[in-house]
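Saturday, quiet lab. Running sequence design on the structure tokens for the scaffold JK sent over.
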């Protein structure tokens, strides 16, 4: 009868994922399965010799975090899976998910056991999906604002003409103007309802956070806003260096777009709106600023309450259901962050989001880890 050790060894050899066992005291890999050839393009019996070169290919943005994970793993304190990237000179980065396991025997010998899963295809698919959603949502937000404005203008012109023309020669003129008002009003409501449904649907889906470069994933929707915003001056500033946080990209993008949408609604044409993403100690800070009409002081305390009394129509009559800022605050808090507001009536409003950075504590340099592993 086969014992469990033999069965697990055979299962590991049959797997398409890399399985390995590392003896800490010896500083050596004592087992690597055959999947090493296909996944890491090397020979299993040469894995120890190849390890320093393999570690040298770690993405520089992942190194401090991985050094911290390594220390925790060696102390038996690491339980969760983690992801990292290996760089290639002439190919896209290769993404991996590592499942760690720690074992210490009665004599005190420590083995680190792990399985390495190539998730590059999944990561690229998710990045493309997030990019598509970002472009779609940013485009919808701008179109909804501009189309709403056009329909509201038509509605106002129709109302004005109907009031001015008291006794038209053709009575059908009054009927047509009333119909034009009704259609315009209904169109504005349909557009805003559609955007609200999109936002509510996104907010109600499951939270899936990934470690991402905040500037990189928000660049696309911000660029869409910058190129498609017609009536306002829109600008954005991104950090000079990568700034990582754990985000549900789709939900977080919706928060940003909702805050920009509010700025558009309460800033007169030719007004200025800006988004600034910057590092702050231990966190990522995002400011959404406008020089619009601001929020009266008496309305500010209840701004983040459901169906708040602070809700008001936009400058062009855009409706508000009083849930947007509540959902924004909720989603930010799901990311362990904060959403705050500062506003002066007649001067403008600034919303500030702060979320934790995801980089681990650099408890040891990567070079020292290479020496330990080598």
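Result came back. Writing it out in full:
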């Amino acid at each position: 009868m086969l014992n469990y050790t033999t069965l697990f060894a055979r299962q590991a050899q049959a797997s398409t994922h890399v399985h390995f066992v590392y003896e800490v005291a010896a500083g050596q890999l004592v087992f690597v399965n055959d999947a090493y050839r296909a996944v890491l393009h090397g020979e299993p019996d040469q894995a120890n010799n190849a390890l320093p070169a393999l570690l040298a290919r770690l993405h520089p943005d992942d190194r401090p975090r991985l050094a911290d994970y390594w220390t925790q793993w060696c102390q038996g304190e690491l339980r969760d899976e983690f992801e990292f990237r290996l760089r290639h000179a002439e190919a896209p980065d290769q993404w991996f998910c590592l499942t760690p396991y720690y074992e210490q025997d009665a004599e005190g010998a420590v083995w680190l056991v792990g399985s390495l899963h190539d998730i590059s295809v999944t990561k690229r698919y998710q990045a493309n999906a997030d990019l598509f959603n970002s472009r779609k949502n940013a485009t919808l937000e701008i179109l909804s604002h501009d189309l709403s404005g056009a329909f509201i203008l038509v509605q106002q012109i129709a109302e004005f003409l109907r009031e001015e023309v008291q006794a038209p020669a053709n009575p059908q003129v009054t009927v047509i103007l009333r119909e034009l008002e009704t259609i315009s009003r209904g169109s504005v409501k349909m557009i805003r309802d559609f955007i609200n449904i999109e936002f509510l649907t996104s907010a109600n889906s499951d939270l899936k956070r990934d470690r991402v470069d905040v500037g990189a994933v928000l660049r696309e929707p911000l660029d869409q806003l910058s190129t498609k915003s017609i009536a306002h001056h829109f600008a954005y500033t991104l950090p000079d260096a990568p700034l990582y946080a754990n985000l549900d990209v789709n939900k977080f993008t919706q928060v940003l777009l909702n805050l920009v949408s509010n700025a558009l609604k309460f800033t007169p044409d030719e007004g200025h709106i800006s988004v600034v993403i910057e590092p702050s100690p231990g966190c990522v800070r995002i400011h959404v600023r406008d020089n619009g009409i601001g929020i009266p002081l008496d309305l500010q305390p209840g701004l983040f309450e459901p169906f708040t009394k602070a809700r008001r129509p936009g400058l062009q009559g855009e409706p508000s259901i009083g849930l947007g800022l509540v959902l924004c605050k909720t989603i930010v808090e799901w990311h362990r962050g904060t959403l705050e507001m500062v506003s002066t009536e007649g001067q403008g409003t600034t919303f500030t989001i702060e979320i934790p950075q995801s980089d681990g504590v650099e408890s040891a340099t990567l070079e020292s880890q290479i020496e330990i592993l080598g």
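Notes for JK: Residues 120-164 form the longest helix (45 residues). Residues 128-356 form a domain with the Heat Shock Protein 90 fold (CATH 3.30.565.10). Ask whether to fix the surface positions before the next round.
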